[in-house]
């Protein structure tokens, strides 16, 4: 589903060069729940951003469903991301001036402006369904400032899943929450995975990572571990597989 081959990421300024990721090779299979761990600054979020097509590697190849994305234009990458990938951020990234319902609708609004056919009523219905899945159907008219941290994260999850993405990328989704709220958010992610979503989660919490199928460890930008925790994880020996060169992939026109 997501394949990274020989990924390297270098950040350069006029006076310094920083190697953020070094020779990363990972294959995420459809339906897996994978956690990524490592100390602060080891490249976890950089890796997630590359998987989410938010950033480009300096070297190496990224493929989604076997299709290389290297030659995609920005508009094509954005369309692919909107169709295939749901993003959950540690700091929520909600728009304070919009209601909970309007925040969740945003990905569908973007899709509609780029050729989607969903009506306004249909978009709102889908947003309400997503909020119901995360237990916030009674908060549709509230604003982010009226919510707790756990509720904000639920809204962020609803926004990520409203377009029924096959892939969910979560960057420290429980990092700003207490243990009770963290476990509730983890239960929601496990439920989404049980329903078929492929989930990749960056976390500092070993107890949360142990609830996933597979654990990838990074240290100083290098992959130092890949362990199967439950049946179904691909594991360190899994073959990254083939890439297909096709910049006009059918993924953009499902």
UniProtKB/TrEMBL annotation:
Pfam families, per database record: ABC_tran
MF-aspect GO terms: ATP binding; ATP hydrolysis activity; transmembrane transporter activity
Any single GO CC term annotated in Swiss-Prot or TrEMBL for this entry: membrane protein complex
Region feature Disordered, mapped onto this chain: 232-254
Database matches in SUPFAM superfamilies: P-loop containing nucleoside triphosphate hydrolases
Matching SMART domains: AAA
Listed PROSITE patterns: ABC_TRANSPORTER_1, ABC_TRANSPORTER_2
Polar residues: bias regions: 245-254
Keywords: ATP-binding, Nucleotide-binding, Translocase, Transport
Signal peptide: none
Domain ABC transporter: 2-245
Keyword Translocase: yes
Family: Belongs to the ABC transporter superfamily. Macrolide exporter (TC 3.A.1.122) family.
Protein name: ABC transporter related protein
Gene source species: Fibrisoma limi BUZ 3
Lineage of the organism: Bacteria, Pseudomonadati, Bacteroidota, Cytophagia, Cytophagales
